[in-house]
Amino acid sequence: MLKIENLQVSYGGIQALRGISMEVPDGKIVTLIGANGAGKSTTLRTITGLVKASGGSIQWNGGELLGKSIDKIISEGIAMSPEGRRVFPDMTVLENLKLGAYLRKDKAEIEKDLNWVYSLFPRLKERDWQLAGTLSGGEQQMLAVGRALMSRPKLLLMDEPSLGLAPLVVQDIFSIIREINRQGVTILLIEQNANMALKIADLAYVLETGNITMSGTGAALLADEKVKEAYLGKHKS
What we know:
By secondary structure, this protein is an alpha/beta fold. It is built from 10 helices and 10 strands.
């Protein structure tokens, strides 16, 4: 269980997060929706130690994460698939995937996880020799998720996995997110495509200018008129 309490983050005098509290229960898909600049990516980056908090608490299975180094956070079972994919373009698919396991020493288990990633993303197996920079956007997104899975996370943070992808590829990515979750990985998802995110989420939060303004099940928020108007592009007639 990830538990965030009264989390505050400031960038040069601007408060990006104004004391947010939320929970990500084990085994669930939780989504955080909101407009650009609401503080969604800041939340993920603070969990992984990339951004320093100015107050509050992030607890992971009862232990405090704030103040821990990034590699310590990864070794505790948290991984992130970042916005913009951030694959290493001049390295092959296989090299990118192996980098995801750089903190691990268990060679036989790493091989097993590589086969697991290939079973989720058969296209990566077909292209394991190819330079990551020559892959399509959808394939790069699969690689970014696969690389994160190579650290064998208990919690996978996903920042805008569908950004810039064709609708058919988006369907594929969301099917894979569901499958990863079915196989025991807890997921915290940030997504501009609120409709898709809420459809697969067990729990959802709405973030507006650094404050959580709504929370509930994915289905409840999907049916909420305010959410529909603000994020789903369905205005009442």
